[in-house]
Amino acid sequence: MGNCWPSQPHGGVTPTTTGNLSTATADTSQTISSSTTSFTTSTTTTTTSGSVNSSMNSKFSVASGDQPYPTGQILPASNLRIFSFADLKAATRNFRPDLVLGEGGFGKVFKGWLEEKGNSKSGTVIAVKKLNSESSQGMEEWRSEINFLGRLSHPNLVKLLGYCLEETELLLVYEFMRKGSLENHLFGSECLNKYHFLGGSAVQPLPWDIRLKIAIGAARGLAFLHTSQKVIYRDFKASNILLDGSYNAKISDFGLAKLGPSASQSHVTTRVMGTFGYAAPEYVATGHLYVKSDVYGFGVVLVEILTGLRALDPNRPSGQHNLTDWVKPYLHDRRKLKGVMDSRLEGKFPSKAAFRIAQLALKCLATEPKQRPSMKEVLESMERIQAANEKPVEPKSRSTNTRQAHQAVHHRSPLKDSSYFTKLLK
């Protein structure tokens, strides 16, 4: 992520959260304003032993909202394990630098090995997220992860195994996601954020069928959040979609998640937090957060999946810095769409299916929240596209000049100057 800027909500309503909007770019983020969040999901107290006592269920009810999603559930009580700092220090070999998987706003993520008691040869590979003492994030984001992932269980949500709180040390322990993040696969070696592959091995471009599988998996996770408890995820982006060894997508990082509006309300009002380029326009402009604000972020990721380009990149030619603003006219026309499809697909994608995904992305990117489909509708549309099982067509040979021009459009370069975003937000 890039630099972070605070954004005030309008209308004189006292916000329930405060925080930052960060840019989705290729450099490492710098926080320039503090992030403090008020949560109402549960009442949590911390004991001197480092455990967290919480009912975790003051707002979670299986009866609320639509019918619970069939493959997910709201656990009656959290079953998270409380780890000692010594446990996690040993699991990560004293947080050895060569075990770093990546780094986000909260802190570094380490690969670890959790041995079974009495059997050093048997155990579980884990991912341990450790708070950076200089991070603007802290207890509130840590607690939010525990409150939500401690109770919500779904195949397309990353599994939180436990946590640690000892003095100033805040850590979270997750299942290990072997294929890293969608961001790694879409943007390759330029990624500087989360979940690098150990040993610096090359990331292979994703074929069309895997891209569609990942998008559907992520849609299932969001649909579950929206239909089970009206949880607004608030920071949907490629770096927060993690992949297991079979490329099953799981949504991670619930530090900014928030319970949605009550039945009598259309939205909640907050300070703007999240990642610029993915955040919905009504949220950026007013601080009004709708369940369908997540749908907009999903639409942005769909466009990234189609094009292989970042949501924001000031190093692209003028007029192309903001991906969705630039690409929208191409999404309306099947022939034009081919000109902006990811060149690393080498033309091997079903044109009809790709166009249908582009049309769906346009619906998700509607300016007004009411005009966007629900995530349940998005998921059903994508499953129908997948069920059609259209086979990729081998592309016709193209001239050298055409190929070079296409590669120029898909130029990838690390962020060198983030001043563009400062001007954009003024």
Automatic annotation (TrEMBL):
Signal peptide: none annotated. It catalyses: L-threonyl-[protein] + ATP = O-phospho-L-threonyl-[protein] + ADP + H(+); L-seryl-[protein] + ATP = O-phospho-L-seryl-[protein] + ADP + H(+). GO terms for molecular function: ATP binding; protein serine/threonine kinase activity. Residues 95-385 form the Protein kinase domain. It is an enzyme of class 2 (transferase). GO terms for cellular component: plasma membrane. Gene3D superfamilies: Phosphorylase Kinase, domain 1, Transferase(Phosphotransferase) domain 1. Its EC number is 2.7.11.1. It is found in: Cell membrane. ATP binds at K130. InterPro entries: Kinase-like_dom_sf, Plant_Ser_Thr_Prot_Kinase, Prot_kinase_dom, Protein_kinase_ATP_BS, Ser-Thr/Tyr_kinase_cat_dom, Ser/Thr_kinase_AS. Residues 22-55 have a biased composition (Low complexity). Transmembrane segments: none annotated. Residues 1-55, 387-426 are annotated as: Disordered. Keywords: ATP-binding, Cell membrane, Kinase, Membrane, Nucleotide-binding, Serine/threonine-protein kinase, Transferase. Belongs to the protein kinase superfamily. This is non-specific serine/threonine protein kinase. It comes from Phaseolus vulgaris (Kidney bean).
